Fold this protein.
Amino acid sequence: MGGDSTLSGVVGDAATLVSGGDPVSYWFDVCEDDGSGLCGIDFSDFDPSALPSLDHTDEEGLLGEIDRILDSINGDQLPSSLMPLSPPVEPASNVPVAAELVVQQCLSVENSCGGDGAKDRREVVKLEDKDGSAWNGGRKYNSTKEKVCDRRDERGANRRDRYRESSAWRRPRRPDEGGDWRRRDGEWGRKRERDGGGEWRERDSRGGYWERDKSGKVIFRVGSWESGANREAKKTKLDNAEQARRSPEKRPQEKREKPTEEQARQYQLDVLEQAKMRNTIAFLETGAGKTLIAVMLIQSVCTEMLKENRKILAVFLVPKVPLVYQQAEVIRERTGYKVGHYCGETGQDFWDARRWQREFESKQVLVMTAQILLNILRHSILKMESINLLILDECHHAVKKHPYSLVMSEFYHTTSKDNRPAVFGMTASPVNLKGVSSQEDCAIKIRNLETKLDSIVCTVKDRRELEKHVPMPLEIVVQYDKAAVLWSLHEKIKQMEVEVEQTAHSSSRKSKWQFMGARDAGSKDELRLVYGVSERTESDGAANLIQKLRAINYALGELGQWCAYKVAVSFLTVLQNDERANYQLDVKFQESYLKKVVALLQCQLSEGAANGNGVKDADMHISDAQKADEIEEGELPNSHAVSGGEHVDVIIGAAVADGKVTPKVQALIKILLKYQHTEDFHAIIFVERVVAALVLPKVFAELPSLSFIKCASLIGHNNNQEMRTSQMQDTIAQFRDGRITLLVATSVAEEGLDIRQCNVVIRFDLAKTVLAYIQSRGRARKPGSDYILMIERGNLSHETFLRNARNSEETLRKEAIERTDLSHLKDIQRLSSADTLSGSVYQVQSTGAIVSLNSAVGLIHFYCSQLPSDRYSILRPEFIIQRHERPGGLTEYSCKLQLPCNAPFQQLEGPLCCSIRIAQQAVCLAACKKLHEMGAFTDMLLPDKGSGEEGEKAEQVDEGDPLPGTARHREFYPEGVATILRGEWILSGKEGCNNSEDELYMYAVKCDDIGTTKDPFLTQVSNFAILFGSELDAEVLSMMMDLFVARTMITKASLVFQGTIKFVETQLAALKSFHVRLMSIVLDVDVDPSTTPWDPAKAYLFVPLIAEKYHNPLEGIDWCLVEKIVETNSWNNPLQRARPDVYLGTNERTLGGDRREYGFGKLRHGMAFCHKVHPTYGIRGAIAQFDVVKASGLLPSRDSIEPTDVYHSKEKLQLADSCIDVQDLAGRIVTAAHSGKRFYVDSVRYEMNAENSFPRKEGYLGPLEYSSYADYYRQKYGVDLRHKKQPLIRGRGVSYCKNLLSPRFEHSEEVENEENLDKTYYVYLPPELCLIHPLPGALVRGAQRLPSIMRRIESMLLAVQLKDMIRYPVPAMRILEALTAASCQETFCYERAELLGDAYLKWVVSIFLFLKYPQKHEGQLTRMRQQMVSNMVLYQYALNKGLQSYIQADRFAPSRWAAPGVLPVFDEDSKETEYSIFDEECPAAETEPQKDFYADDCIENMREDGEVESDSSCYRVLSSKTLADVVEALIGVYYVEGGENAANHLMRWIGIQVDLDPKDFPCPKPYNIPESIMRSVDFEAIEGALNVKFKDRGLLVEAITHASRPSSGVSCYQRLEFVGDAVLDHLITKHLFFTYTNLPPGRLTDLRAAAVNNENFARVAVKHKLHAYLRHGSSALEAQIRDFVKDIQDELSKEGFNYFGLGDCKAPKVLGDIVESIAGAIFLDNERDAFIVWKVFQPLLHPMVTPETLPMHPVRELQERCQQQAEGLEYKATRTGNIATVEVFIDGVQIGIAQNPQKKMAQKLAARNALVVLKEKEENAMTKDMDNGEKKNGVQIFTRQTLNDICLRRQWPMPQYHCVNEGGPAHAKRFVYAVRVNTSDRGWTDECIGEPMPSVKKAKDSAATLLLELLNRCYPDNR
């Protein structure tokens, strides 16, 4: 839709709707910046540019423009500003409308499209040194076509087109998605922010305040604050920038073309047909499209299975990880099926059966490495029978012990033939050997593969079509000279290898003792049993270093000294940047040797080249250092040298002569130079070793003549310098799109990888097998490509291999077609089934999971890797082999297995076997069986992690859905009602219900006022009683409720039993009618007593009481009032009932008012919810609802009432429908006939009448002036007053019923004074517009307290009911506390009890699990505990017991509360938002203590002065975390009230089964620890430090033994740490809970976190020298402890200093762990007596953290400061070597920086440094300001945070801010804020009032600055 049609359409529609009046929709208030509702007009196609500019210069401004719009609407014509506009000129767009779609063919499928039928061409070419003519003359090597630039331009255009295409596909932005149309949320947010949670307007008792005078001095003024001068009302113009931006025209979206389905070739279809009939091995060249055949086969099988209504499960196996991603993507694109991809690096090794099962159910094709399939088959997670189709890519690997082979032999061939899957294999050569000797040999090898795969080899018989599609490259052989051997260098490096081996050998012996120390002199026996120590020592680094030395030696021989030097430098640089370099011996050990190698090989390419290129040795080091990360990831540093002008031949020639570069490298460089001008050059160089792949690109980068090459290396996973899959994919992607033109690759690029068809393939190292020869040749797929083989001149083995490879290829093809007869061979090697040795397999009968000799060793290693460990202990199995000589020369071997010390058993002897390998396998198989029997393995033969159903439930949740037990997981629950409230008597009067005989219980509501108030209305309230059908519990009657009715007065309410009553039916009917009439007005719900439904589930009635004393309860009821109210005719008038707005059609609430007409408001209700509203509502000068009232006949005709002088009498007033005595008005409520709003009558003002001038308030910005009250009502409402001389009635608005249970006022401690009255807001009403309401004012005010009282009673009754269910005597009030969430905002909540309950639950469950499962390690116990106490599990327990019905989780909202017979109306208007016009939107509302408002339209449902704004409660929605928290809170409450017995009773009731009966868990037997170990431990010293004697010292030995210590029968401390952690957590939480009884829950949580953390415990360990007794086996740990002890000596030496975990040095976790493990040992040693543990640990933990000493984490503190100041905080982290550097930026400016080996510690230090800088800036600014006495233009930063810090430190309440003025035009608002704080020693400070500021935050800062100065005078230590 274009601009023209859009505009005319919208405007035309609007005009039609208005004039036609059928579906009435109206213009929205353009003052409001909210387009969410837009009055029912459909703006989906609305063009915002059609809005009028509203840029008029006349005086009326915006509001005048609105009036013109309305006039034009009423006059059925459009204003000039909205006449159809000419379409605006569309600016030229860079995004074309119809972008050409660039569809890339999927190159993954091995097909080529087109090409000449090139024959297999081969030529042997001699490459002379300086003669290029020996090359084929007809080739393109010296081509002069130079189209590089053109090609680049084409590629650039291509990319641009792709970009345009993707841009064109972006969804056009709809107008309603723009920022201007969605501002409501922002506006609401700003309102709340300005409000600061409520207004604080109470003045100090001295009646004064502090502010700055004009000279900048801080002075104290008496009285209330006033603004300096009345500001003139300013006209505001609508900013052009605020207009809605024009939405872009919708462009016709082009359909995205799918990639054209590749036409299958005939030979592919032939192979497919055979594969459909039987198991097939497709033997086709690389690039022939084998993958496409597999894809078509999957589709074929799927189609067949769908006919049978079955789901396919196809498994596609690949040999290498990169192929997993590639083939999965191909299948996904080609079929659209659900395809999963799995390999080790994506973590599937750790999946359990449930997770896998979901994959099997949700996916159709699984692409995975063979090892993954083998694992899940062995663990019986997947059965071979479940697979329908098994595809093996590169199936020639299915030999020997390859996973392909094991999958087939162990599972496929052991499955019955009927249940086996179909098999399809793919290969470029079925034989993966150096060659075949004969046709028969070839036949045997093919037959073996066929037998293994149960398949038949199939190939193409007629090769013509194949050759047409798969062009063969020209094969060129290049010969190079043999390299000169650098004997001296080779020998030196080999000598280093020998030296390293010897050092490592001695290290594995010596290092066991060197770090143990003299204290372990007696414990050598335990180490002799172990093969090695669990620690990275020289011996661990040796194997790695030897590999590196061999790689360097290889480079030296094959590539030359210069290349070897670059390799050595790269290795060294990577090692020096290793984060472990500081503390791991193996890293330092390697570094020392590599430095020697670098020094030995140091050289430069040539003097001339070096000087010319400017490459110096130092520069080379820098370059390598800078690129270390890339080397580490397997990519090469690219340091391009600038050409020095020297010809490359001269450089290389000189280098070859010196031995710095080999002739082989020289030949390679010359080959590449021949392609310098080749068009679209893409090449792959295949090398054998990774080191060559890494270093050759560096060689090319150093040579200016090869600058036309963009080179990278591509290496696989199985090496030290491995590439991650993501990097590999990235490199291949760059090669495809031309950013890289040359790949130097290992064998990873031979097989299957989808790499762009390239035109040159060079075999730098000759292939090792026929297969590699065929596959690498297949990479040269482009027609006219070259396949270059480099062979050494005179090397017979090279020539022989080449000959064999060519012959073998022909023989294989021939055999695949013709098939040799092998029937004469009897002894042909046939397929051997799975292991045939007896006892070679262990199978779990229940699941079928199997472990064999082949898999047992790997499974034991995997088990050890899953045991809990840290970086100091590398847990692995150790094997000790023993040799046994037997008679007859037979040698047998046995193996002893040593498991880590936290395994269920440590040692196992294996059987005698014929070889070392089988002995190792046999003992591991026996260990697997034993571990399964002990429960360490699940029935799937996977390590038991201790998780069960909980994990299953967690995984069943869909991705993206919040987990049960979290705060985001929310569900709807019906609100609970206590069963005691049920009563059928409430139904009396209905047919079949005659309950007049029922006895009812009457309880009077007793209210005692605490405090005083000047407002008489607060004390003039009627008395009420409540009738119940049952007697209430005594605890309900003893409960006192605090009702927060005013700032200075609290009402204490309670119930008093009056007696029982029997009513006759008429009495009960009258009381029910009274109850409904009263509550319908109080709750503003329009219901009729005769039709309202009654629910017997909630049966009680409110009845009025007489003021006098009475003896009989029946006499106490005010029957006269009941009768008067029930029988009055006033209820027939809709204006007198609730919600007259519904009748009048305005949808505006009756109570309170509407301040939109006053010029400040927002369209809060109808407009925001897309409801139709009155056409003129909110717009000045329009006809309002009084016309509706007149037209409805609700009032007598005003024309018939002649103006009289009745008002001259002071006794009578003419009202809207009657004449009344003035005294009868006292205490009544009047209804304003013109608006339906209700007001309490305060007085009749005889000195005022309707002809009095209408005052203009200070700060009022409205544009209209009214000459008098009569003029106001005429203009505003269209009412011509008849009795203008009548005195006016002064009234006060009847407010909504409020929640009185929440402290609505920010402080109530102050004493009222004369200057600080409760402000009251009045309106003046003409009597002739008023109706007398039937309900007295005192009755309504009293009734407004009843909802809050009943809410508390209903909650208490639920708590009593729950108490009765639990059956344990605990005060119901405490149970109610545990059921009440903090979000209720009441005076109590469950958070403190929850903290205690959480710690107790963790403690009890930990002890239970520890005792019940003595064989489980700490990791299993932790997961089992998590399963028992996680929020998800507790949430389920809560649901099972129905706790959701008892919980109080929302702030009470009377408007949503259901009284009997008066159900709430849940619509958009029933929100209990108690807005006040005196919050942020009325600038001059507080200039006088008593305010008169001159018209009723200003009165809102006003929030009382100082009242905190309530939030809008919604439906009863509970988060599942709330339910879990309530369970913990109940445990805490029961523990506090009844000790452990009560808490355990509650836990059993809820369903947590932890029986701690000592009879069930006898104390473990004393430890049997070798004497040598007992002698090595200084028990006296440890027990002296702890001040406790151990009965079983074995517990103490275990508590100080680390996992890195070799076992010999002593477990490590992990299990004891598990218990001790829970014990200390419980004891410390309990101590803090009972010590700081008045501390808020948040602060209590912070205290607990500071006291119970590893950093704090580590400092305790060092302080009491417990670290000295730690038994471990790690030199790295020893060094870290030593460094830590040294670092914190300064900390501990400071008097009274304790960082409580926030110190500057990070503690080794081990130190905190031993404190917890010692606590666990003491607990168990003293018969599980926690009191003794606390007795020991209280002095150890001294000094404990207190609220005064509680530190805040610097990172958190800085974050909170920046959030308060709305400033951008950013951390930038870098790592150089092993040092992390963290910088702190605030709004882009660096504020702090720090360095540390650990990144987290560096961040903490940087944050701390930033805080120091910021505080210094703040103090300097303040000092400067005080010294100069100059007035500041702005405020310094962070003043409010500094004030908060002082309050936290001194334990004062947070500062109280409130707005004292807000004024100025909309574009230049100014805010003035005041602040004060309640100090603990001096009471409230004086009020400090800041300067006018353009934002609320700056205004608060200005006030905070003054208060800080005041506090600094009173408390100098604050500085």
